[in-house]
């Protein structure tokens, strides 16, 4: 289906789908693709018909989608009428894992580093200096903006996708020379000792070493396994 054909269908269904947000449409497409084996099993009578989406959805799927994306069952049917050819993957294997509508991981894994990009790029949670002793804040009452980003590649260890390369960015304060990292900033005290000050609350991504990051869910799994070992 091309874009023009899709727009014509959506225009025809504008009254029914007028209250549906773009986010709900994207969720519908993603969830419907995941449910393709179930839809095909209930609605298609032979394997040769797997390349073509059925005109209607099973009642259980309609009820699930309506609840999952917070629309009415009638709107689910309207979305399927408009988007089934977009959602449906021809020639899919019902005995294999389902294929997501958009596989963002593979293109990034294959191409991103060639363009100095990564699947994830992490920055400090602030764009201004947080130190109350920063000269800019003391003299003007304004927070100094952070500049001079420095980037490096690291490995992020996750629960669902294992480890993959990411970019970690540090920012610097020109006024007090503090450096802001993903989980903390480093400042120099009056006695010339460097000190780390961690942000709160507990971060979703934990930087254990310069080139090693861990997803919080993975850390919590390790902790639970240690407790129950």
Task: Looking at this protein, list some descriptive labels.
single chain; 229 residues; alpha+beta; 2 domains; eight-stranded mixed β-sheet; 9 helices; 8 strands; 38% helix; 21% strand
General description of the model:
The chain is α+β, with helices and mostly antiparallel strands. It folds into two domains: 3-87, no CATH class; 105-228, no CATH class. It is built from nine helices and eight strands. Strands 1, 2, 3, 4, 5, 6, 7 and 8 form an eight-stranded mixed β-sheet that branches. Pfam families: CxC5 (PF18718). Residues 120-229 form the CxC5 like cysteine cluster associated with KDZ domain.
Summarize the structure.
The chain has about 230 residues and is α+β, with helices and mostly antiparallel strands.
The major pleated sheet works out as: 8 strands, mixed
State the shape. Answer: elongated
Total DSSP E strands: 8
Distance between the termini: 54 Å
Secondary structure class reads: alpha+beta
Radius of gyration: 25 Å
| Unreliably modeled segments | none
Proportion of strand residues: 15-25%
Roughly how much helix do the residues carry, as a percent range?
A: 25-40%
- Helix-strand topology string: HHHHHHHEHEEEEEEEH
Number of helices: 9
Mean pLDDT: 89
**Can you tell me the number of structural domains?**
2
Topology:
Elements: H1 3-12, H2 14-17, H3 22-34, H4 36-43, H5 59-69, H6 73-87, H7 105-111, E1 121-122, H8 135-140, E2 146-158, E3 162-173, E4 179-180, E5 184-188, E6 194-198, E7 205-209, E8 212-215, H9 216-228
Parallel strand pairs: 1-3, 2-8
Antiparallel strand pairs: 2-3, 3-4, 4-5, 5-6, 7-8
